[in-house]
Known about the structure:
Layout: E1 5-11, E2 14-28, E3 33-39, E4 43-48, E5 51-55, H1 59-71, E6 79-84, H2 89-94, E7 102-106, H3 110-119, H4 121-124, E8 132-135, H5 139-145, E9 150-156, H6 170-178, E10 180-189, H7 197-208, E11 213-220, E12 228-235, H8 258-264, H9 269-274
Amino acid sequence: MNQLWFYERHTSGYGVHWKINKVLHAEKTQYQELAIIDTVECGKTLVLDGNIQVSEMDEFIYHEMIAHTAMNSHPHPEKILIIGGGDGGTAREVLKHDTVLQVDLVEIDHRVIENSRIYLPSMACSFDDPRLNLHIEDGIQFVRDAKECYDMVIIDSSDPIGPAVQLYGREFYLNVYNKLNDDGMIVVQSESPVFYQDIFVNVFQNLSSVFDKVKVCLAPIMTYTSGPWSFTVGSKKWDPERIAGDKKQINGLKYYNEHVHKGAFILPQFIKEMLR
Length: 276
């Protein structure tokens, strides 16, 4: 951050500058560099290790897509596990489904949660829902030790560096598979297929080696690396492209709807070829 500009480096040849009004908070936690900045274009924004995680301007696109796409493909999701998602936005969307009885949210860094409560209350409001259980621990270990099974597991992690790197591996996906009910599903934020092709393809291949049905959907997240952002869905039974027939419409959504659901799984040819 320099002279009220924040520089975000994506690759060796590509970066983005964001003009900021103020640095609201900055600290080094046990796990990462954390900052909350007030940007001119995007409002309050959570930054981890120099990378934007969520902003007030477009967080609804990311959170609605990572949550509702799979939640609407499963006829009756009751027990949900979220790995990461310490800002609370994914849990907020999941809890809009009236079938949900329990959400376990596992975040390794308690400072993400605490700062989100202070600076990002529109997302962190989910932490006050009595159906939500917060677990401040390592998501990999939580899945390994879990005694319960879930209908849905959502991997809302940061980029595969530092504490998040193992959340993208086959061994972890196999452990998730074993903690899902017989018709369970997993959703993974799987990065940019344009700038992070290796990670994107690796997630798809690892999930495909574990789950019977694996599909990719796309959405434009303006504050992330330019181009489409991907979410990869693995399922034991249900087709992620199909909306379960008895789903009730959720009012008040800003991005997701049944037409977006169907269209998000229609992939450009160059992405199809990556996944062959």
